[in-house]
Design goal:
elongated; alpha/beta; four-stranded mixed β-sheet; 298 residues; three-stranded mixed β-sheet; 9 strands
């Protein structure tokens, strides 16, 4: 008598299939990644204060330029928490401030006729970029394209994860300090050559959701020991592979998109000395997806 189990087909490993297809796509040199949403793309600009309209000067210019480059700000506009409040805007919870220095002048009594008694003392102030503020329209920002087409399965999936999602600005990121995902306004999404606007939006959202699983309360993922200076690159690999897995499982995209391969290839270059990096990242991405799926109702 034939054992029934011997006739059963082996269980399909969707994640392994997707990983292999990603590797094949990467080996075919997919090209450079494309930005799936529209940003202002301003050149190097002089930072200015939102309330006073005055330009910052001195060392403050360099400091704000560096912060804009590192944090991807799309606007040259900054102000203190109090100044944003005066403008009727609100700094987002958990937003990081930037340090600026200004000089306050005062006078002292002196018996030296050549000394006018004027002195200056440095004072520190903390300012927030307009990208981290709600209730303020940034001048020059492109007109939004309107809402994307909703994918109900993906919306339900994200709702059940319990991870808060904030919309605003022109950046997509996961902030561990507040355990929140920030997404660009959906009207800025343009899609790419291979993804529609709605596919691009959800691919980015699921990328950030995968990042969120690295939190200590979830998968507690840390690549510092394994990859050292390339730990950030390894985490980006996990997030994008996780996004590819979820896009396939939720029916957002029908096949592996060039966009996923382009993004992964970009970060894989930093890990070129470790041929097993993509398999490590794929395994961690599977763990991340498993955690997210575990939050779904049975």
């Amino acid at each position: 008598m034939t054992n029934a189990s011997s006739n059963s087909k082996p269980r399909r490993d969707l994640h392994a299939e997707i990983t292999q297809r990603l590797i094949t796509a990467i080996e075919s040199h997919p090209g450079d990644p494309q930005m799936p949403w529209r940003r202002s793309g301003r050149p190097l600009w002089m930072p200015e204060n939102a309330l006073t309209k005055n330009a910052y000067n001195g060392i403050n210019v360099l400091n704000l330029w560096v912060s804009a480059e590192l944090r991807g700000f799309s606007s040259p506009i900054f102000a203190t928490y109090k100044q944003w409040h005066e403008l009727g805007a609100q700094v987002r919870k958990g937003a990081k401030s930037e340090l600026v220095v200004f000089y306050k002048e005062f006078e002292i009594e002196t018996e030296d006729d050549s000394d006018n008694g004027k002195r200056r003392v440095a004072r520190a102030s903390h300012v927030f970029n307009a990208d981290d503020v709600e209730g303020y329209d940034i001048p020059g920002r492109p007109e939004p394209l309107g809402p994307i087409a909703r994918i109900e399965a993906a919306d339900r999936f994200m709702a059940h994860t319990g991870i808060p999602v904030i919309h605003g600005g022109e950046r997509a990121f996961y902030r561990p300090a507040t355990d929140t995902i920030t997404m660009p306004d959906e009207g800025l999404f343009t899609g790419t050559d291979t993804m529609t606007r709605d596919e691009a939006y959800y691919a980015v959202l699921l990328h950030e959701a995968t990042h969120a699983t690295g939190h200590t309360s979830r998968c507690d993922r840390d690549f510092t020991a394994r990859f050292k200076k390339d730990a950030y690159a390894a985490e980006e690999l996990v997030a994008e592979i996780g996004s590819a897995f979820l896009c396939a499982e939720l029916g957002i995209t029908q096949d592996i998109r060039a966009d996923h391969a382009q993004y992964i290839a970009n970060w894989l270059q930093l890990l070129k000395d470790d041929p097993k990096a993509i398999f490590t990242a794929a395994a961690k991405a599977s763990e991340a997806v498993a955690w997210l799926k575990k939050q779904q109702p049975s």
